[in-house]
């Protein structure tokens, strides 16, 4: 239960801080760099806040990667997923209540009318590649051979840089739970596009994790 609670709180914080920076801070005021820092900073904070309890996955794709890499069992993975999706939905609900609307909760998307209006193919490729790289950083920085105490910083900085590069493409997911919470409440195109933010991060997670599983990276 402590691990589930930690993952709930961690994912809640990630979505509240990250999406909240755009929804409550305002994209025009905070800017793409500010939003990127909010997502990265939330991960750094939670890595040191709950990392010792659950490992601070706060991302179903990361839990999937940990399972494939042999670092967690299937039962724990599913338990983490439940907590992560619940935490993301709760954070989106808080943002909806505070902002008084459900049209913009920091939802992910692609295509005409969404930020840079990148195509579905571009969005799919971006999310696969970035999730794979993100997973590689996570598994590498938390391995026994990595310098102790720096994983949270490495992971947070990586997430921030991914956002700097890709906010205009998809709003950046690399995390199905982060996409799920806002999309469920916003509905419409955000909900219709949600499949991509489940499929692409899953593929990316498998690619990154297999590099460790087969010991090409070890």
From TrEMBL:
An annotated GO cellular component: plasma membrane
Entries under Gene3D superfamilies matching the protein: Glycerol uptake facilitator protein (1.20.1080.10)
SUPFAM superfamilies according to UniProt: Aquaporin-like (SSF81338)
UniProt keyword terms in alphabetical order: Cell membrane, Membrane, Transmembrane, Transmembrane helix, Transport
Superkingdom of origin: Bacteria
UniProt family annotation: Belongs to the MIP/aquaporin (TC 1.A.8) family.
Annotated protein name in UniProt: Aquaporin
Species for this entry: Phenylobacterium parvum
